[in-house]
Design a protein that fits this description.
By secondary structure, the protein is mainly α. It has three helices and no strands.
């Protein structure tokens, strides 16, 4: 469960970073926010491009985090199924065939 908590914190952090990038991109689209820098050719486009690149990297990272979550979920599901099978097996009476499978070949004094 430690790994689950770590992944959850990491995913929240990633989401927060992606959210900040989206907020910044809205501000960066307004040319009035550049002041003197608006005279620099291509500044606005370069900044927006960097923000989009960062946003894409965060989305890729979030996808990997979600895949790690999925692996944990699959493991927990297997543990759940196995434990249910163990409980089911221990609480029911075994058939004669199941008893023979557990014991194996019955001992005999006959020598062949």
């Amino acid at each position: 469960m430690n790994q689950w908590d770590e992944l959850q914190s990491y995913l929240i952090s990633q989401f927060r970073n992606a959210s900040h990038i989206l907020d910044r991109s809205q501000v960066l689209q307004n040319s009035n926010n550049y002041g003197v820098l608006s005279r620099v050719s291509g500044m606005r486009d370069a900044l927006l491009e960097k923000q989009i690149e960062s946003f894409r990297n965060i989305l890729v990272s979030m996808r990997k985090t979600l895949e790690e979550f999925h692996c944990i979920v699959l493991s927990l599901d297997k543990i759940h199924r196995d434990s249910r099978q163990l409980v089911k097996g221990s609480s029911s009476h075994l058939s004669m065939k199941q008893l023979q499978q557990q014991v194996g070949v019955k001992p005999s004094l006959i020598y062949t």
